[in-house]
Design goal:
The chain starts with a helix and ends with a helix. The protein has about 400 residues and is α/β, with parallel strands linked by helices. About 50% of the residues are buried. The mean pLDDT is about 95. It has 15 helices and nine strands. The strands form two sheets. A six-stranded parallel beta sheet has the order 1-9-6-4-2-3. A three-stranded mixed beta sheet has the order 5-8-7. The chain has two domains: about 160 residues, Rossmann fold, CATH 3.40.50; about 210 residues, Dehydroquinate synthase-like - alpha domain (Dehydroquinate synthase-like, alpha domain, Up-down Bundle), CATH 1.20.1090.10.
């Protein structure tokens, strides 16, 4: 069964290993945001478009960035209208603002939606004769996009180092991804000061999003490069170690270190899934975001333990190996002792426990039975044949998972 999908994945795995690694420049630590102007001026750039959302545009660190740009002689423009799950119509407005301001670069500031909007805008600027729908899939852009600095204000999406932009079709509400190495931002800024005042609910959802990236990338072994497994394991360890502390509002210098650890873990997970891809959890989560506007990280958090449990034997051994490699046995009930099955079950149980402790819902009652066929079609189209998951899902599998999370309330 699934000979076509596995054959496709075998070929893609060979191709993934031949792709060059990213040479992205990374600025790290408290206050790193003030170094952004130098990234631009060193390259002869002086008219960036800042792409962000309304909440971020009212923050103190946004004003610090604007002051730093002005002091460096950068005549920047601002697009601050990005909302969660950016639509194709919004991306067109980003492009219009870029052209109207005669801009020469992007600064994407905020969560994954802001970075996705800027990346998708860059794709349209590189391929002005195409629609975003025509650029969806793998390697459809294939041209240089404007220089981009990505500055995450949440520790979760990893979009600051990925080759993907996720966009929602404004008419059909279907989420789709544009995947191309040219979309990877040229520079990333990991500044823990920017995550200091994030509401706990967003800390929880984005942190579990990052954990999902690490776990799904770990399971997609056929696409791994030499560094991928280590990135997944390190990210999983630090997220499970530090996310509860950050969620509880860890203060002082310890809080700052924990937030920086979360930013670094999110970045590592982003690097991992850029190579290894995500899986069925993300494919189904995208349908929930597209149709019901459920926050992406929250959807992933709820779906992750359900899908891992559903994989059964196919995921048991690799999950146990992740626990041992990441060194997270002591974080699990019973100290992580026992067989592969015991370790895998304890790991899944810990994910469910983290969700409960952080107030993440157990299910989504808004899922409508009449939407399941459409959602299953969207999810399987995204996942197959690209994602080298332990168990390839058909539409019936997707509907079974959706019914399960609808009832888990």
């Amino acid at each position: 069964m699934h000979l076509y999908e596995r054959g496709y994945q075998l070929g893609m795995g060979i191709g993934m290993k031949l792709l060059p690694s990213s040479r992205q420049e990374v600025l790290r630590g408290s206050g790193a945001i003030t170094q952004v102007p130098k990234l631009l001026t060193d390259r002869g750039l002086s008219r960036p478009l800042i792409v962000t959302g309304p909440r971020v545009s009212r923050t103190d660190f946004f004003q610090r960035l604007e002051r730093a740009l002005s002091e460096a002689g950068c005549a920047h423009c601002v697009f601050c209208e990005v909302e969660p799950d950016p639509g194709t119509d919004l991306v067109q407005r980003v492009v219009k603002a870029y052209r109207a301001g005669d801009c020469d670069s992007f600064i994407a500031l905020g969560g994954g939606s802001n970075m996705d909007a800027a990346k998708a805008g860059g794709a349209l600027l590189a391929r002005p004769g195409k629609t975003l729908q025509q650029l969806s899939g793998v390697m459809k852009v294939r041209r240089k996009t404007p220089f981009m600095v990505a500055i995450p204000t949440t520790a979760g999406t990893g979009s600051e180092c990925t080759v993907a932009a996720v966009v929602t079709d404004s008419k059909t509400h279907r989420k789709f991804a544009i995947n191309d190495p040219c979309l990877c931002p040229d520079a990333a800024v990991l500044d823990s000061d920017l995550t200091a005042d994030i509401p706990p609910a967003i800390v929880a959802a984005t942190g579990m999003d990052a954990l999902t990236h690490a776990v799904e990338a770990w399971l997609n072994r056929p696409y791994h490069k030499r560094a991928t497994a280590g990135q997944c394991a390190a990210a999983a360890h630090d997220i499970m170690m530090y996310l509860p502390f950050v969620y509880e509002g860890g203060a002082g210098s310890s809080g700052g270190r924990a937030r920086q650890k979360m930013l670094e873990a999110s970045y590592l997970a982003g690097q991992a899934f850029t190579v290894a891809c995500v899986g069925n959890v993300h494919a189904i989560a995208h349908t929930l975001g597209g149709l019901y506007h459920i926050p992406h990280g929250q959807a992933n958090a709820v779906l992750l333990p359900e899908v891992l449990e559903d994989y059964g034997k196919a995921a048991r051994r690799p999950l146990a190996k992740l626990v041992r490699t990441a060194g997270i046995e002591r974080l699990l009930d019973g100290g992580g002792q026992g067989s592969d099955q015991a370790l895998a079950e304890a790991f899944i149980a810990r994910i469910r426990q983290m969700n409960r402790e952080m107030g993440i819902p157990e299910g989504f009652p808004q899922i409508r039975e009449e939407d399941l066929d459409l959602m299953a079609a969207w999810a399987t189209k995204e996942a197959n044949p690209l994602y080298p998951v332990p168990v390839i899902y058909d539409r019936g599998d997707v509907k079974r998972i959706l019914r399960r999370v609808r009832k888990s309330i």
